[in-house]
Specification:
Domain Peptidase M1 alanyl aminopeptidase Ig-like fold: 454-556
Structural class: alpha+beta
Bound molecules: zinc ion
Mean pLDDT: 97
Domain Peptidase M1 alanyl aminopeptidase C-terminal: 561-879
Number of strands: 32
Organism: Dyella mobilis
EC number: 3.4.11.2
Domain Aminopeptidase N-like N-terminal: 109-196
Largest sheet: 8 strands, mixed
Strand order of the largest sheet: 6-5-9-3-2-12-15-14
Distance between the termini: 7 Å
Length: 880
């Protein structure tokens, strides 16, 4: 289809990759900082690839050029051409020194890319964001990740207004200047791509700690924030130290500068950024304190701190050749973070959390018009490719490779990867070769996973031959066509499996005469394959894809009794949960199609037994008692009615609550409520998690009683986890006590934007019809603004992406509201607008009335004048 203002520029293609014609050996930046205007003087020593003839072309986006010279000679206007995004210079030769001076305008930068102001102009601070292509908003440069240069950065500013001056690298001098100004210099000994450059300047406080690396380097860890939140940085500092020790222990990787800075900002497009030696964090993933952070948020802080730190090796020391290789650093770093978090917390809970996220965010992406391979073939706007597919599915691919090699084999492979590519910009092929070569295994078949989009469906069928005592498991795979990829290949799918007897015991597996373990991995790499297990005494129940051994959708015609057996007997927490999810799905689907209640009864009975089993972990029990979410249920349907799905899912939970009974739920709630410790240990977190779930189930049975308990819990909560859980129940149920609790919360956290974001989100998640009016009223709250990404996400993102029954109104008003706000947001911050627009993904599978309303809203948006390339690309793709 053609749109009035569709981007006509050709996409960038992986197959067009060429080595840079010009590289930069050293760069000296002299930055004179000011809120309204900053001046950047850059001195680049250039090298030319003798094999390529192209003139020097540098990126530079919307820069005000003040002066330019080559080898000391000022250039006349005829000597160069600048069209607002590319600077072309004829006179440069190999070894030339290019000097430019430009002016940029931080306070006017609402896109939060390049150099910008965080906070009010009187008190805020300046910072940069360069990944992926922000450096070109700061100075002229070959702004691509395969140009690695040595950076020397000198910052100059008014001392009173900007007492703290930071850049990546090691400190290399500081001093006074006339007129109350000062300077500070930083030298980074490690050549790096421009996207890892960062600076920060302003009034900031810090907390710090000495650290000695395993290889004997003494350094300082320093966390910086504005004064009013510095007390909330201690948890992150501890998490940083844990991450550093873990990477030393697990991968033998040590930190490599004299100082590691971390800075918190409330104005950030993403979660955080791994700039070399100067990580910058969205405050949401750095600050934590019991009064304003939930248990989940504490774990998220730990995870993101670790993720950014781990990038120092997987991303910074070894970086990406081009942005098509993004998953080389992101998938791998997510995987490393998942390993770390699993060790720091509960491995099965972490796996449950990650697989749920994959299903909620990545599976729908892979099933619709935004589907793309983990390594895309082409893109228009790179910022639109920081996706769940690149991150989360990318991590699953690394997990499969790590599983194939085993712990020591994977470590060997990683060692070789670092040895070969340290200081380089690498590709996914390089990664697979290193892992393979270190283990004498050819892993190139896994490249197909990086190239093919769509979630494979794995169909399993078992046949038992009592006479031969043989069990034949036939596994077939199929991947549906996705946009631009009509034909799919079979992929190597590792299926970890066990067989259970009807007594609930795992059977020894006799496959191809191998030794009889009870768990085995088979790899399905054809369209269909059969595996014959011998010596099987009676018909078994297969437990497949254990630990979620591959990112696929499993289709297996289990009976309810078979799933119930797995829920009851599987000793592995993740698999037990997974069987429960499958049983809940079967229950849900049978109830809505035929009204058959057998699966539902089996689910309720199995859960009820676990509910009364003191041996089971409280957090796991809470997760077991939570059926798949509305988005996951919708993902399995072809004509989605989100209101119905909400009602049906509530009905399913109501049956569970009824089965457990009000008395048992109340008793359990009270037993859990007797613990008032707000400690962060696993048991305390688990109790709070289960307490919330029990309260939610009780609210389905006896609303009045549950609301009274929730109101009491709200008032007496020792920390945010309990407070927000109670508020959530009151608000979602629109209980009479909700208004007072909301008013209290609003006032209590008036000066705490991260807590206030939760106040917006919890109300944006009211199910069904009332959500829209609530959202519109909240847009008028004095503290609402589209300018702050966290705030826009807290209200509009929570509404459009996490509240299907509220957003997908049959009258289409949810869609029109979002489209309108996207257009407004786009004028301020295109990256955030584009990201929020993905909430429309999946509209093609809505029932006809909603589908038409969504299409109309999207079309209207697509036709507006002057949309950014970011938003136009998402809207055009999602409309296809
Ligand atoms: Zn990352």
């Amino acid at each position: 289809m053609t749109l009035a203002n569709e981007t006509t520029a050709d996409p960038i293609r992986l197959s067009d990759y060429r080595k840079p014609a010009w590289t930069v050996a050293t760069v000296e930046l002299d930055v004179d900082l000011g809120i309204d205007a900053s001046e950047i003087a850059a001195r680049l020593t250039l090298h030319r690839d003798p094999a390529q003839a192209s003139p020097l072309r540098l990126n530079g986006e919307g820069l005000e050029l003040l002066s330019i010279s080559v080898d000391g000679q000022p250039l006349a206007p005829a000597d160069y051409r600048y069209d607002g995004s590319t600077l072309e210079i004829g006179a440069a030769r190999d070894g030339s020194v290019l000097e430019t001076r430009v002016r940029v305008r931080p306070a006017a930068n609402t896109a939060l890319e390049g150099l910008y102001l965080s906070g009010p102009r009187e008190t805020g601070f300046l910072l940069t964001q360069c990944e992926a292509e922000g450096f070109r908003h700061i100075t002229f440069f070959p702004d691509r990740p395969d140009v690695l240069a040595r950076f020397t950065v000198t910052l100059k500013a008014d001392r009173e207004r900007f007492p703290v001056l930071l850049a990546g690298g090691n400190p290399a001098g500081a001093g006074e200047l006339p007129d109350g100004r000062h300077w500070a210099r930083f030298v980074d000994p490690h050549p790096k791509p421009s996207y890892l450059f960062a600076l920060v300047a302003g009034r900031l406080e810090n907390i710090e700690r000495d650290y000695v690396t395993g290889d004997g380097r003494k350094l300082k860890l320093v966390i910086w924030s504005e004064a009013n939140v510095i007390d909330r940085c201690h948890y992150a500092l501890d998490a940083l130290e844990r991450s550093m020790r873990w990477d030393e222990r697990t991968y033998g990787r040590h930190y490599d500068l004299d100082v590691f800075h971390v800075v918190a900002t409330h104005d950030f497009n993403m979660g955080a950024m791994e700039n070399k030696g100067l990580n910058i964090f969205n405050a949401k993933y750095l600050l934590a304190d019991p009064d304003s952070s939930t248990d989940d948020e504490y774990r998220a802080v730990e995870a993101v701190v670790a993720h950014e730190y781990f990038h120092n090796w997987t991303g910074n020391r070894v970086t990406c050749r081009d942005w098509f290789q993004l998953s080389l650093k992101e998938g791998l770093t997510v995987f490393r973070e998942q390993q770390f978090s699993a060790e720091m917390n509960s491995p099965s809970l972490k796996r449950i959390e990650d697989v749920s996220l994959l299903r909620r965010a990545q599976f729908p992406e892979d099933a619709g018009p935004l589907a793309h391979p983990v390594r895309p073939q082409e893109y228009r706007e790179i910022n639109n490719f920081y996706t769940a597919t690149v991150y989360e599915k990318g991590s699953e691919l690394v997990r499969m490779l790590a599983g194939r090699l085993g712990t020591s084999g994977f470590r060997r492979g990683m060692d070789l990867y670092f040895e070969r590519h340290d200081g380089q910009a690498a590709t996914i092929e390089d990664f697979l070769s290193a892992l393979g070569d270190a283990n004498d295994i050819d892993l190139t078949t896994y490249l197909a996973w990086y190239a093919q989009s769509g979630t494979p469906r794995l169909h399993a069928k078992g046949l038992y031959d009592a006479h031969k005592r043989e069990y034949t498991l036939t596994l077939s795979q199929q991947t549906h066509a996705t946009a631009g990829q009509p034909h799919k290949q079979p992929l190597p799918i590792p299926v970890k499996l066990s067989l259970f007897g009807y007594d609930g015991k795992a059977l020894p597996l006799h496959l191809d005469g191998h030794a009889a373990e009870t768990e085995k991995v088979v790899v399905v790499d054809q369209a269909t394959q059969s595996f014959v297990f011998r010596n099987v005494a009676s018909a078994p129940v297969p437990s497949l894809l254990r630990g979620f051994s591959a990112p696929v959708v499993l289709e297996c015609d289990y009976t309810p009794a078979e799933l119930a057996l797995l829920v009851t007997h599987d000793i592995d927490g993740f698999n037990r949960w997974e069987a429960g999810q499958q049983l809940a799905t079967l229950a849900f689907e049978n109830l809505r199609s035929t009204g058959d209640t057998a699966a539902c009864s089996a689910w309720c009975e199995a859960l009820s037994a676990l509910f009364h089993n003191p041996a089971i972990d409280d957090a796991l029990l809470a997760d077991l008692m939570t059926p798949p979410g509305e988005i996951e249920f919708a993902d399995r349907q072809s004509e989605v009615d989100p209101a119905k799905i909400h009602a049906q899912r509530q009905a399913l939970q109501h049956r569970l609550a009824q089965h457990l009974g009000a008395t048992a739920l109340l008793d359990r709630y009270q037993a859990l409520a007797a613990h008032t410790s707000q400690a962060l240990d696993a048991d305390s977190q688990a109790r709070r998690r289960l307490k919330r779930r029990v309260l939610e189930l009780l609210a389905l049975l006896d609303a009045d009683q549950a609301h009274a308990l929730a109101a009491h819990q709200y008032q007496n909560a020792p920390g945010m986890t309990d407070r927000l859980a109670a508020l959530g129940v009151l608000v979602r149920d629109r209980a009479p006590q909700a208004a007072a609790a909301l008013a209290d919360f609003r006032q209590r956290y008036a000066d705490n934007p991260l807590a206030l974001d939760k106040w917006f989100s919890v109300q944006a998640q009211i199910p069904g019809e009332p959500a829209l009016a609530t959202v519109m009223a909240l847009e008028n709250d004095a503290s609402f603004t589209l300018k702050n990404p966290n705030r826009a996400r807290a209200l509009l993102g929570a509404f459009a992406s996490t509240n299907p029954s509220g957003f997908h109104r049959v009258d289409g008003q949810g869609y029109r509201l979002l489209a309108e706000r996207l257009a407004q947001l786009d004028a301020l911050n295109p990256q955030i607008a584009a990201r929020l627009a993905t909430a429309f993904n999946g509209w093609q599978r809505l029932e006809p009335i909603r589908r038409e309303a969504a299409r109309a809203a999207l079309k209207e948006l697509a036709q507006r004048e002057g949309l950014s390339p970011n938003l136009s690309e998402i809207v055009a793709n999602v409309l296809q």
